[in-house]
Specification:
Layout: H1 4-28, H2 35-48, H3 50-57, H4 60-72, E1 75-76, H5 77-97, H6 101-121, E2 124-125
Parallel strand pairs: 1-2
Amino acid sequence: MITIKTLKKFIFAVLGLLSFGLGVMGVIMPVIPGLPFFLFASYCFLKSSERLEKWFKGTTYYENYVVRFRENRGMTKKEKIRINVVADFFIIFSLIIVDIWAVRAIIIILAIIKYYYFIRKIPTLPPEGNQGQ
């Protein structure tokens, strides 16, 4: 018999693997930001399985993206711009297809909050080659 706990772990594992795959695509394709997907994958693996979490922490993706983000507590300007451009594409797309003004207003408010968060709350780090100088 499948329990709710087992089902939740399975769903987190699937979401983590999907997010990891999207993160890898983000490393390969410069248009897609990899960091948010790797952070989400890390969270999902933590909630799903100790084995998956251990595997993910052993990857170079974890070392190069998640650990660097956690240690530095910030993002480079290039990372911020890339993430915002992709997010803005989906925001604009949503504004075009949604026909309800209240929903459009909510989307615009969320976009403003997103910019506030990226500009004011996440520190901007120097480019990777200039850190420590």
